[in-house]
Write a structure and sequence with these properties.
The complex is a heterodimer of chains A (296) and B (350). Chain A is an all-alpha fold. Chain A has a single domain, classed as MetI-like (MetI-like fold, Orthogonal Bundle), CATH 1.10.3720.10. Chain A is built from 13 helices and no strands. Chain B is of the alpha/beta class. The chains are: A mainly alpha (296), B alpha/beta (350). Bound molecules: adenosine-5'-diphosphate and magnesium ion. Adenosine-5'-diphosphate binds next to strand 2 and helix 3 of chain B.
């Protein structure tokens, strides 16, 4: 009864052959198209380098001012502005200014890329159930597959550096904004959509005049999630050559430097909390008009 | 005399069946299958069944029926928010179903506007922006649209609320915005799907007055849906009664009250104040008489009786445009007020 004792597998040799040929196939693919891809991503790389340099080279008081102003624009809340500026001061005082700027740079670029891809993808997904059925499982894979697994082909294709790091961050951080854009649009009140259609609005007029504005709170929650997830990828991204707070954490892990790891980890947490609170306050303000309270 | 040009909207042999494969179901319904049977045997919902209505220009056509009778489905066919399973909808001599995508958009933008039961206002836009919505969709410049719609905001009594958001307004005021938005496009056809049903009774009467006042100067072709008979009688020049997607009766309010087609309609009218609804013209004798007080044909019986009782209780002369067109007795009026015996109509109401 051998059959029941051991699972009837393909067998060692054929399996090894199969893996080998897949590897070889991908390797030759990356030899052939690696350069092309690299030059395709070159403008992005240039932009990232420029942006990182900008953040690092700008005098710190100006950055503090900008950060405070952005926090104010987003939240209109003095406490949050004070907390934000305070956190940056502490970060700088403990010598993590430059790493924090580098991390801010990659997070910002990753967020911009995710918004640029994610919102159109979400809109497309909301447009038809068929497209939704195709994109949903892709998003599931992107969110659940261990990041190390997609790091392999990314590194094989593009070596290590900023661009593969950005790709890794984006693969992980993209799904929430796509999902929440789709959801937000689908949740728009059918009665309001019908009214819009009845007045002769075409697809574009319905999309930009009704669906997107009414989905904004959800889209915004998606942006918030995306930023959080991008921050969560900082350490892994540093493994393939992205500068920033993650590098220090990585060094702390391999050398068992407790204090270094803790400080840089807390700096990441501080960034996350600031992004989260400010963007949530902003999202709330977007919904002002929903408040009833008969101002009559 | 109704000439063809007086007909603004003509609905012909309209069928709507909801379900996976509705086309073959039409024949079954034509063959006499009921709504319940169609649902049970074939899993399809009968929405509309062989509806034929000619809607006159510049009048208010009421469509009435209980909830689920197909009123919303019917009105949405006129601007093709719903595609029919079979039939035609002819507006100004043109079949709406033959329109291309672009023609349909034009039709909705310029020729038929709509007011909704749940208002359907844009919550993120102000009263002024909502009222101007149809005009912005038409492609008007923003400022021009706001300027043009201001007149309608004033006309429905919302001056001063231009910068409020819908959520800050009461239901009645929100529907005023809905009405202003529909009027601002200058469409000749106004579709109103239970526009006042969500409002409190007093506010509803207010809105009916607003609508009747507007209609006196605008003379739009209004298709007004309601499940409320008092509203139907008050507003309608003509009434169509729907049941299970089929037209049960068509006629003037007077017709419906005096000659209900069947028990379904009798049920509808059993609680109304007949003396206030029925007019002298509906109960008069066309035989002219020489003496007696003069009463206008459109006087409600209630008032006419009072006038006659105050005088000598003798037959009165009925006048129309200063000409005597008939006579009326108190007896005839009492007879008309007496509620017809329950079940006196046709027996086909199940
Ligand atoms: N999209 C739909 N799918 C299936 N059945 C529907 C749909 N829309 C309406 N119906 C059915 O058609 C009938 C008429 O509905 P409706 O026109 O909304 O009635 P009313 O407006 O008179 O209350 C009801 O039985 C309803 O359940
Ligand atoms: Mg309805």
């Amino acid at each position: 009864m051998d059959f029941f004792d051991e699972f009837p597998s393909l067998g060692r040799t054929p399996l090894r052959e199969m893996k080998k040929s897949i590897d070889a196939g991908f390797r030759s693919f990356s030899r052939e198209y690696g350069d092309a891809l690299e030059s395709f991503f070159n403008p992005l790389l240039k932009f990232m380098v420029w942006f990182e340099k900008l953040l690092i080279n700008t005098p710190w008081p100006i950055i503090l001012l900008c950060v405070g102003a952005l926090a104010w624009l987003g939240s209109r809340n003095y406490k949050l502005v004070a907390g934000t500026v305070g956190a940056f001061v502490v970060i700088g005082y403990f010598g993590m200014w430059e790493d924090t700027m580098a991390t801010l740079a990659i997070i910002s670029v990753a967020t911009i890329v995710c918004i640029g891809i994610g919102i159109p993808a979400g809109i497309l997904m909301a447009r038809s159930n068929r497209i939704q059925a195709i994109i949903t499982p892709i998003l599931d894979v992107m969110q659940t597959i261990p990041s190390f697994v997609y790091l392999i082909p990314v590194v094989m294709l593009l070596c290590i550096g900023k661009v593969p790091g950005l790709l890794a961050v984006c693969i992980y951080a993209l799904p929430p904004i796509v999902r929440l854009t789709n959801l937000g649009i689908r949740l728009v009140d059918a009665d309001i959509m019908e009214a819009s259609t009845a007045f002769g609005a075409n697809y574009k007029q319905r999309l930009w005049g009704v669906q997107v504005p009414l989905a904004l709170p959800n889209i915004f929650a998606g942006v918030n999630q995306t930023i959080m997830m991008a921050l969560a990828m900082v350490v892994i991204a540093s493994m393939i050559g992205v500068k920033g707070l993650g590098v220090a954490v990585l060094r702390a892990i391999s050398n068992q430097y407790l204090a270094l790891g803790l400080m840089n980890g807390l700096a990441i947490v501080a960034l996350a909390i600031i992004f989260d609170r400010v963007s949530q306050q902003y999202g709330k303000r977007l919904q002002k008009h929903r408040e009833g309270g008969h101002g009559v | 005399m109704v000439t063809v040009s007086d007909i603004k909207v003509s609905i012909k042999n309209l069928y709507k069946i909801f379900g996976a494969d509705p086309k073959p179901m039409v024949a079954k319904v034509e063959g006499g299958m009921s709504k319940a049977e169609l649902l049970e045997k074939h899993g399809h919902v009968l929405g509309l069944k062989d509806v034929n209505i000619d809607i006159k220009a510049r009048e208010i056509q009421v469509i009435m029926g209980l909830s689920g009778s197909g009123k919303s489905t019917l009105i949405r066919h006129i601007n093709r928010l719903i595609e029919p399973t079979a039939g035609e909808i002819v507006v100004d001599g043109q079949n709406v179903l033959d329109m291309s995508e672009d023609e349909l958009l034009e039709f909705r933008r310029f020729r038929a506007s709509m007011v909704f039961q749940k208002f359907g206002l844009l919550p993120h836009r102000t009263v002024a922006q909502n009222a101007a919505y149809g005009l912005t969709i038409q492609g008007s410049d923003k400022n021009e649209a706001l300027e043009r719609s201001q007149r309608w905001i004033d006309r429905v009594g919302l001056s001063g609320f231009e910068n409020h958001y819908p959520a800050q307004l009461s239901g009645g005021m929100q529907q005023r915005v809905g009405l202003a938005r529909a009027l601002a496009t200058d469409a000749e056809i106004l579709l109103m799907d239970e526009a006042f049903s969500a409002l409190d009774p007093l506010i509803r009467t207010d809105m009916q007055d607003v609508l009747l006042g507007l209609q006196e100067e605008l003379h739009k072709t209004i298709i007004f849906i309601t499940h409320d008979l008092d509203e139907a009688l008050r507003i309608g020049d003509n009434i169509v009664i729907l049941r299970d997607g089929a037209v049960i009766q068509k006629g003037s309010p007077q017709d419906i009250v005096l000659n209900p087609a069947d028990d379904y309609v009798s049920d509808f009218i059993k609680d109304i104040n007949r003396a206030r609804v029925l007019e002298v013209g509906s109960v008069m004798d066309t035989k002219a008489i020489k003496t007696g007080i003069k009463i206008d044909v459109e006087t409600p019986i209630e008032e006419a009786m009072q006038l006659m009782l105050e005088k000598d209780k003798k037959p009165a002369r009925v006048v129309k445009d200063d000409k005597v067109v008939g006579s009326v007795t108190i007896d005839a009026m009492i007879k008309a007020i007496a509620r017809p015996k329950h079940g006196s109509g046709n027996k086909n109401y199940k």
